[in-house]
Specification:
The complex is a heterodimer of chains A (262) and B (346). With 262 residues, chain A is mostly helical. Chain A has 12 helices and no strands. In chain B, helix 2 crosses helix 3 and helix 4 packs parallel to helix 5. The chains are: A mainly alpha (262), B alpha+beta (346). Chains A and B meet through helix 8 and helix 9 of A and strand 6 and helix 2 of B.
Amino acid sequence: MTRGRIPGALLVPAICGLIFLVLPLVGLLWRTPWSTLPQRLTEPEVVEALRLSLVTASLATGFCLLLGVPLAWLLARVTFPGRRLVRALITVPLVLPPVVGGIALLLALGRRGLLGGWLDSTFGVSLPFTTAGVVVAEMFVALPFLVISVEGALRGADTRYEEAAATLGATRWTTFTHVTLPLVAPGIAAGGVLCWARALGEFGATITFAGNYPGITQTMPLAVYQTMESGDLDGAVVLSLILLVVSVTILAALRDRWLTAP
Amino acid sequence: MTLMDAHLIVERGGFRLDLELTIGRGETVALLGPNGAGKTTALRALAGLTPLSGGFLTLDGRDLSATPPEQRPVGVVFQDYLLFPHLSARDNVAFGPRRHGVDRRTAHATADRWLERVGLTDHGRRKPRNLSGGQAQRVALARALAVDPVLLLLDEPLAALDARTRLETRAELRRHLAAHPGATLLVTHDPLDALVLADRLVIVEDGRVVQEGDAATITARPRTDYVAQLVGLNLYRGRGEGHAVRLESGFELTATDVVHGDAFVAFPPAAVALHPSRPDGSPRNTWPATLTDIQRHGDNLRVRLDGPIVVAADITPAAAAYLDLVPGRELWAAVKASETRAYPAE
């Protein structure tokens, strides 16, 4: 396989890059207070933050699937004027600093916001600084990941199967539910996991839009930040370790279940 | 009785398909033509997958020109079958009936009946990836027929099969097509498929019909180089002057038929005799020729000759050895008038 010596000019930076990525994780494991770990894991603040994180990330992923898969289908299958613009708009939250996203959400859905004022006066619904607000913030940041990966899956799928379904009497809707969805299911699952992981790690938009209230809006990343600020390094390390374990588990699941599937 | 009547006009990026096509009840028509002739476009237009730029389509008296594909009583067997990979063979066949509002049990019963008809009763639970090419082709046929289409379309139904499977499947397909009460259109570039499976051939080139008729007429009287090559004839066009046809180059070919005006002359490669020097005696058509190419053709050799006319000739290996056939060799070619057919071009 190898063709001669590997050039040092490539090998050295490659190894440095690897060390740069791995070293902080090693640091985290090295600093973990293993002896007190079990009792720290069961502290109510930790359990509460973890529960809130898992619930909001899962809800956000669910809503993202509901909105994102149809959006991806529209982009992949329907030609309409301004499609390129729509695709560009979808990628904006992807490159936008999440804090800016949080402020934008406040201006749109805050009590005095574009839509928020109307929501408040009509339904008495106010999203900022609520658990629902956390879900909204996570959705805003994670949805583009889902749309882009599902659109990629849809574009990669052979549309002639959909034509075959049409000749057998399937309407566009039944074709979507009975043919398109099963065909791109692995792509949707991968997009969903990516979306969930992004929602789980969300920090900037959440703290700006939903605040940092333990039990209501304090998700794991926010708890890490606050614990660290309060000088409890061990606590921050424990919380970080949990997020690390969850992330690595997802990565492993992705690799085995979907990424390597034919 | 005409079941399908269509005038398909599809314009797309410089290509224009303009095809008039009728198919009777129970009739199988083969749309035959070289690659890029517009055969598949015609099939897609009939299925509603490609919109018509003009013209019309009526099926069983109903105008379907603007009907979406899912509302057309049309079944399609696609070139690579396109069986849904996530469904079993049985569910693939049941897919159509289900979409037509049939309940699950009835749809499965219909699917089982069709799988039995194509001899795949034991394969219903298999996923398409576990079926052989021939089996997949039969499932695709069963799936298309399970919705009782008025018009059945087949796009190169045997092209994806190996030679051996092809032979068996062709014979079987012929049986199923004969049993189909509606109209059948078969798109193919293989003349053998067309001759075996179809009652009538329609030959398309560059989006237009160049010739149509039954196999006997087309093989006897080809009207374009493509058709002549398909059926293995040398074909020339010129002006008939009684027994002789004068080609544009001025060269004259003599036939026993009498034609006047625009005319075709055709003769099979086997009718061409080759001589080392000018032959004397009976053949009416003789000319000096230069050998350009030799290829195996069954047990014989097929040679290409340049000269006043470009000709394909079949000769035995013994004759080839005697004539010392190498490219560039100067020879005399002869064709008897009795083996030359002349017929009007109009």
